[in-house]
Amino acid sequence: MRYIPAPTVNDVVRSLSIAATLIALTAPSLAFAQGPGRTRTGFWFNAGLGWGTADCELCVDQRVGGAAGVLALGGTLSQRLMLGASANAWIRHEGDLTQTLGALNAIVRFYPFSRGHFYLLAGLGASAREVKTGTAGSTLSVTENGTAAILGAAYDFRIARNVSLTPFANVIGVDFDGQGTGFTQIGLGITVH
Q1: pLDDT of residue 94
Q2: Does residue 116 contact residue 157 with C-beta atoms inside 8 Å?
Q3: Looking at residue 116, what is its pLDDT?
Q4: Number of Cβ within a 10 Å radius of residue 169
Q5: Which segments of the chain have a pLDDT < 70?
Q6: What radius of gyration, in Å, describes the C-alpha atoms of the chain?
Q7: Contacts of 94 (CB under 8 A, 6+ apart)
């Protein structure tokens, strides 16, 4: 496998700018986001789908788009702090090449305002990468494991007492024996509080 450079500062800034724009366009002012009866307690679960970009070793373009998804769950410590685990994935299929990146992280979700709906998340964990090439008759697959880190932002739009639509944006950095890479995710999820 050849060396893939880690995401540049521009990649991270671009991803976070997209996240900030998404949240700014879809979320009301945090000052007006506070309201009675919108509390967080107990167990929570989140699932979402979207789009992302990642480094692609065998593609013509080094940074390519693909489908992205997230599954997360955890418990509530306070109105501002939640702990949990998050499984994030990115996949692209092009011709006879399929590349998959994934990360499993222990995460912290932090709400700057106890009754607000905007949150930041961060976490550390493990990652995996699989590259498959081949036709119907023969397939070559290479898998690697490594470490991962995640930074993200999201907003919970309450649609029911304990259910929210949650637009999200994540930047996931992964490392495979000193070869850094990463992927981004932007999408929409459902959160059960």
Answers
A1: 82
A2: no
A3: 86
A4: 24
A5: 1-38, 56-61, 136
A6: 18
A7: 59, 64
CB 67 within 8 A of CB 94: no
Residue 124's beta-bridge partner residues? 106, 149
In sequence order, the β-bridge partners of residue 99 are 92, 131
What pLDDT, on the 0 to 100 scale, is given for residue 136?
A: 67
Rounded to two decimals, the pTM is: 0.77
Q: Check: CB of residue 72 under 8 Å from CB of residue 84.
A: yes
CA angle (40 as vertex; 39, 42 as ends), nearest 5: 140
Joined tokens for residue 131: 């590259």
pLDDT at residue number 28: 47
b/e burial code for range 8-24 (CB count within 10 A of at least 16 → b): eeebbeebbeebeebbe
DSSP 30: G
pLDDT for 172 equals 96
Instruction: Please check whether the domain covering 9-22+43-56+63-192 is classified as CATH 2.40.160.20.
Output: yes
Report how far residue 73's alpha carbon sits from residue 67's, in angstroms, rounded to the nearest whole number.
21
What does the pLDDT read at residue 14?
62
Q: Note the pLDDT of residue 57.
A: 60
Q: Domain extents for the chain? A: 9-22+43-56+63-192
